[in-house]
Write a structure and sequence with these properties.
By secondary structure, the chain is an alpha/beta fold. It has one domain: Rossmann fold (3-Layer(aba) Sandwich). It contains 11 helices and 8 strands. Strands 3-2-1-4-5-7-6-8 form an 8-stranded mixed β-sheet, with helices on both faces.
Length: about 240
C-alpha cells in the first residue's frame, strides 16, 4: 500500500469513530465498519440448503469483496465454497481486516485454507487495475450513503461489469451497486441468526454466466418460487 493512500493514515487509529470522521474529511467515502451483511450471507450459504446452492458460483473462482470492512466473513465465504483465492478490498480497515482473517485461519480448523490478500485501496482504483473477464465479485452493505456520490458509483458499476468473469457473478447484498449492462436475479432469504429478518441479495452476471449455471439458477428460482416468498425478481 502506498504510504500516501487513505488506508495508511487510518491504520494509525484503532477507533472506528475516528476513522469515520477522517474518511468524511477526505471525501473518499465513509469508513463504515461493516461485516454484518457478509456474515449473514456466509451463514445462509453454509447453513441453508437453498443458500448452499450458491457454493457453485464461487468454486474455483478468484473472489474479491469490495468494502470488506473489519470482519473475515468474505474470506470465510470464499474458503468454504472452494474459491481459488480471495482478495479483501478495504481502504479504511485493511489492518483490522488482515488480522481478522489471520485469526480466523488460526482458530477455525475445519475451514479450508485458500490464498488471500488484503488491499488497502479504494475500490474504484483497485478495479481499474484489474484485467477484463477475471473475477467473481461480492459487495455487501455498499449503499449510497457510504459512497462519495452517484458518479463514483456509476464508475464502479462499469468496472465491475468489465472485470467480471464470463462464467460467474457479482453478488450484491444490501448494496446499491447495480451494473446496468448485466442480467440480475433478485431474492430475499431469512437470516440464520434471526429468521424474522430477511436479507436481500441480487445476483448479477452476463448471459454467459446464467447459461453456464442454467440448471442451478433454475433450481434457485423454483425453490424460492415454491416457498411463496423470497423470489423478488427472476433473471432479467
Amino acid at each position: 500500500m502506498n504510504k500516501d493512500s487513505p488506508g495508511s493514515s487510518f491504520s494509525n487509529s484503532r477507533d472506528w469513530r475516528e476513522r469515520l470522521s477522517d474518511s468524511r474529511e477526505q471525501g473518499t467515502g465513509y469508513a463504515a465498519p461493516g461485516g454484518e451483511f457478509t456474515k449473514a450471507l456466509f451463514e445462509w450459504v453454509a447453513a441453508d440448503p437453498k443458500g448452499n446452492l450458491l457454493k457453485n458460483f464461487f468454486a474455483g473462482q478468484r473472489v474479491v469483496e469490495l468494502g470488506a470492512g473489519m470482519m473475515p466473513y468474505g474470506y470465510k465465504l470464499a474458503a468454504a465454497c472452494g474459491a481459488r483465492n480471495f482478495v479483501a478490498v478495504e481502504p479504511f480497515y485493511s489492518d483490522i481486516q488482515k488480522r481478522s482473517i489471520q485469526s480466523c485461519i488460526s482458530s477455525e480448523e475445519g475451514l479450508p485454507r485458500i490464498p488471500f490478500k488484503v488491499i488497502g485501496q479504494d475500490m474504484l482504483d483497485y478495479l481499474r487495475d484489474e484485467p477484463d473477464d477475471l473475477l467473481c465479485v461480492i459487495a455487501c452493505g455498499i449503499e449510497d450513503c457510504i459512497l462519495p456520490g452517484p458518479d463514483y458509483r456509476s464508475k464502479v458499476e462499469c468496472e465491475i461489469a468489465r472485470v467480471l468473469a464470463s462464467d460467474t457473478f457479482f453478488l450484491s447484498s444490501h448494496s446499491d451497486l447495480y451494473p446496468k449492462d448485466l442480467r440480475a436475479l433478485e431474492l430475499t432469504y431469512p437470516r440464520p441468526s434471526n429468521p424474522r429478518v430477511f436479507d436481500r441479495l441480487r445476483i448479477h452476471g452476463m448471459s454467459s454466466a446464467f447459461d453456464c449455471h442454467e440448471s442451478l439458477v433454475s433450481r434457485l428460482t423454483a425453490q424460492f418460487g415454491e416457498a411463496g416468498r423470497g423470489l423478488v425478481r427472476p433473471p432479467s
